[in-house]
Amino acid sequence: MKLRKVTAASAAVFALALTATACGGDDSGDNGSSSSGGGGKIKIGIKYDQPGLGLKTPQGYEGFDVDVVTYVAKELGYEPDQIEWVETKSAERENALSRGDVKLIAATYSITDERKQKVDFAGPYLLAHQDLLVKADSDISEATDLNDKKLCSVTGSTSAQNVKNDFAPKAQLSNRGGYSECLSALQNGQVDALTTDDSILAGYAAQDQYKGKFKLAGLKLSNENYGIGVKKGDTETVDKVNKALEKMVSDGSWEKAVEENFGPANYKNERAPKIGQLVQ
């Protein structure tokens, strides 16, 4: 998809970008509340800045989350050119759904008990784990190896602090404004490792400029069940999305999307989760 190879979903989404440029945005305010496309649009929230998952590029939108929710939208009756992508940052996801700004959100959205008080989830469609990204020649293989080492994560994330609290009390934490800054620091030897979800790490490591320079430690420091967020109480949509995800897994499209988005980073992904069942 991507920084690696273009899929049919990406090509279709690029066609949407061209259409939007020529015709302007949809001013109807419809977030896709109807049960099928029917000539309307559906607004879907994604991340714009996560390679391999949700990334806005000059050519369109790409990433595993984009592939998954494009497939789902198709099953709901919306062609790719009926999707209106909306940037949905982590802090705004619940609000975007409750206000009706979007119909669905697929944005590395981990299903938690706290979040389920505010939104409903379909899925999970990916089981990720907190992991470490290190240089390809690094001898760091366990979280405990980070004692007296410098560990990078982004400001506002709890990932690095979790490692320090649970595994490496002597780790030196180095927070940066974004993952790209952590990658640069890792490449330059200013830090020894970067931590967050393995799916996010794999997406960054698979970028052309980083191929072969980094590796995942392959740890499972937490379980992160990614789900598709839906407005609280919209059980009909949850059921339809779950059926679409089950079909995506059964027809091989899910595995293909994983390989195309994360394969270059040698991401050892978990098997597709059983829809409706969380891994604790």
TrEMBL record:
PANTHER family: ABC TRANSPORTER GLUTAMINE-BINDING PROTEIN GLNH, AMINO ACID ABC TRANSPORTER PERMEASE. SUPFAM superfamilies: Periplasmic binding protein-like II. Keywords: Signal, Transport. It comes from Streptomyces heliomycini. Residues 41-265 form the Solute-binding protein family 3/N-terminal domain. Residues 1-22 form the signal peptide. Gene3D superfamilies: Periplasmic binding protein-like II. Coiled coil: none annotated. This is Glutamate ABC transporter substrate-binding protein. InterPro entries: Bact_solute-bind_prot3, SBP_3_CS, Solute-binding_3/MltF_N. It holds the Pfam family SBP_bac_3. Belongs to the bacterial solute-binding protein 3 family.
